Amino acid sequence: EVHFVESGGGSVQAGGSLTLSCVYSGYTNTIGWFRQYFGNQREGVAAIRLAGGDAWYGDSAKGRFTIARDASKSTAYLQLNNLKPEDTAKYYCAAGSPDRMLAADEYTTWGQGIQVTVSS
Q1: Of residues 116, 117, 99, the one with CA closest to residue 32
Q2: H or E element in which residue 47 lies
Q3: pLDDT digits (tens, 9 = 90+) for 30-63
């Protein structure tokens, strides 16, 4: 079973940046980042295959967010740039072996989530 320690959330002004980190333990072939607003469905933000580093992005992330992993540190990162108020959400990392990389129901293990708040 995979376990996570997530960090890096916080409050920033619009246009600012944050780096989210997800330290994982246990085996997984993919780490995904998702976000959720006030009980809505979780939205796939980005995902990365740990072997090879292939990455996928949701439409809201393209051009602004970057997912990366450092296998030596068992850590996946989500770099958030040019943040907008609509990026305010709780961000989760998740582990799984998905076919649909940004589909939340294809991930089996979830972190606790970290809050990102962007003010205008």
Answers
A1: 99
A2: strand 43-49
A3: 999 999 998 789 999 999 999 999 999 999 999 9
